[in-house]
Amino acid sequence: MKQIKRFFKLLLRSSTGTAGMVIVILICLCAVFAGQLAPHDPNAMDLTNMTKPPAWMEGGDWSHVLGTDNLGRDILSRMLYGSQISLVVGILATLTSGAVGMVLGLVSGYYGGVTDHVIMRVADAFYAIPGILLALVTLMVFKSSGIVTLVLVIAAISWVQYARLIRSEVLRLKGKEFVKASKTLGASSGYIIFHHILPNVWPSFIVVSTMSVAGSIITEASLSFLGVGIQAPLISWGGMLSDGRVLLATHWWVATFPGIMITVAILGITFLGNWLRDVLDPHNKGL
Amino acid sequence: MKQTLLKVENLEVKFKTLEGMQTAVQGVSFDVAQGEVFCLVGESGCGKSLTSLSIMGLVEKPGIVEADAIVLDGQDISHLKEEKLRELRGNKMSMIFQEPLTSLNPLFTVGNQMDEVFRLHQKANRAKAKQMSVEMLRFVGIPDPEDVYKRYPAALSGGMRQRVMIAMALSCRPKLLIADEPTTALDVTIQKQILKLMKDLRRELGTSIIFITHDLGVVAEMADRVAVMYAGQIVEQASVYDLFQKPLHPYTEGLINSTIRLGDGRRRLPTIAGTVPPISKMVSGCRFHPRCPYATPACRENAPPVIEIQGRMVRCIRYAKEHKQEGGVHV
Amino acid sequence: MGRYLLKRVVQIIPVLLILTLIIFCLVYVAGDPVALMLPPEAGEQAKAALREALGLDKPFYEQFFIYIGNLLRGDFGTSYQYNQDALSLVLERMPYSLQLAGVSLACSVVVGIVLGVAAAHFRNSPFDLLVNGFAALGQALPGFWVAIMLILLFAVKLQLLPVSGSGTWQNLVLPAATLTLVTSAKIIPLVRSNMIEVMQQDYIRTARSKGLRGSTVVFKHAFKNTLVPVITIIAMQLPTLIGGALITETIFAWPGLGMLIYRGVANLDMTVVQAGVMAVALITIVANLISDIAYCIIDPTIKYQ
Fold it and tell me: What ipTM was estimated for this complex?
């Protein structure tokens, strides 16, 4: 209880941190209550109401606050449902890549030697291919585009940053007196990892994870924009943007609102992440 | 009496913080004569470093420096523009710092960093600057100056780096050298060498030195005159002989009593109880009263005046005239 | 320094091997290209003959070694889609990618360093706030959306610049601006925070105590100490700009490597994909090696570690 109080006290001291937290909570609420909040069925086509402009523009009305797309689907409803996909993919991809990267980084840093070399060279190889490119090729080749595949692919392109971060932290900690002392006292590797290394690695891990949720959301949107990510009937912000792209010159709202939504979401997560970094990990300089 | 080189009058350093203005150094006044070693002594955080940085004009924002006057060699530098002050720095006055390991830029050679001073203040060309730098390195007793000139700081030991710092600071034969705990980070043997070097250099060049330290042993070895600082104020000023012979201020007394003297045997070392109050929670009245063994109710209420006695200065109510009549201390 | 670099170069060999394996696996999974290469009316016999000719009937590991052998001889295979040597296709597109990446990277570095240093210098001022806002927005805006909005504004509404294509400098402006916005937003906060940290170091105080000009202190003594992380992030951005700019390239119909690979994979023309991905990976590795060399030049203490 005391810690929660302290957390909020620290949070309120930073205006961007507070803003980030509020945005993140709002988006989570949108995702959870999309069914209750959405005024329309997001996939319901309404051929009498195609490309209807937002309510405040001429020709718009309040039944479709942000207008409709070229199939007459309500943009606001689609955006609300889209937040589900973005969050689910973003969080799952982060958890997966975080877990993989954490384990590999720990093993690599703690045991060193050949294991370290092998893991780091694999990491180098993955790192040498731009993430979006590797994801695109993999998705196309496997001809599969479910959420699970997407999560796995995004995790495959982002585990490297965790592995490298954790490894360097472990190497740093391994040289510290308290670890050496523990070793001299005969502590087992497992004990040292869980009692001395992990607790000290958490802060930077949490910071990187937060930022990684933002990265994963952008990657998901990019892949969906390219048409290899989330497929209908599931709705993704990137996919909406892709749909609206051709209508840009005539019906700007179709592509603009999902774009704003992505931006606000990423901004919120980044703010929260920056604040977490300042609080938890003051040495990290934002690489 | 030797000629006065530096006169600081009523120096004040303030910081603008979220909790309002906070004064870190207050009412500091002192003189330094030509060729004199003047020691500023005090615990960490007492404002001795800030005092020296304000003379150099190196206090950074959000710090604000105010002084009635800072007269260096006949020129009031307290209101000089940065551009003019810059010409004095490294030239007429220079400074060496506590951490020789981090005070040199790791990415430039010793030579490069030394040359800068000559090129800037003496408009020397590359070859001339190099020649003067090597000369200066030899002057501070570096055995192979040509080699050290080419080295990066990382390749030198702490004592070597401090010698380089001293060489750099003395490059333009400054009138005033401020040494901010120059030996604190060094081994005892190296410490001795550096202190000896500084004494020799002073004799040779006639440079006045403001020597900042918390080590009374170093004070006894180096100083002509001493100012003791406590919580941002100078509480006592005297010649080194007088100070050790008969400390006036209770704080000085405590400091001297808490140093080991030869032949003290197994006596338990006395300490000064309590800690320095932080500047954000400065106590009323005399700043030392919570820790002072002689504290009276008056100490809690009124800030003590600065009292001059026999050419010494002390900031303590016990030496005030009216107080003396009520049974104060006689000097 | 020599040993350090040698170690770095030696490390490249296993990385290349693993890379080849990853790419080969993708090609292998992509499946049988024979059906795509022959006319639909071709019989089973013709298909089998082609398979044998291409070595596709051999087991996985054998195919892999043949593949490596071919790569070592510079043979990346022939694109069935363009009916052209895959390597020459990649080399044809490379200048476009390098041009776009080069211009964007140069702009990003200039913008990133100037704004980052200035924001650090005037920290907590309204200017700093503005720069931070710009950086945060640049990181949050999805590149493809920026691209679309730029087209809407400059090409459709104002009609100042062409919507897409290549050939003239006008074609380069919008894609380069998109990439610059996204990339400089990553460089600015890094330069800023490093600069702030370096400015608090003891050697900066020493430099000032020598009477050096403020500009000398900032640009000589401080800036060089921020270069290592800055070069790291620049080296990190280069591959993203060359192969990872495929969305920007697609939107603006810029015929770079990214687009080549995208088209290739869409048509399952895996020879092109592998040659393209390999080229991008090589550039990344070379960029990293160059940044390693740069560290050695900037920071002599690496020698002593």
Answer: 0.86
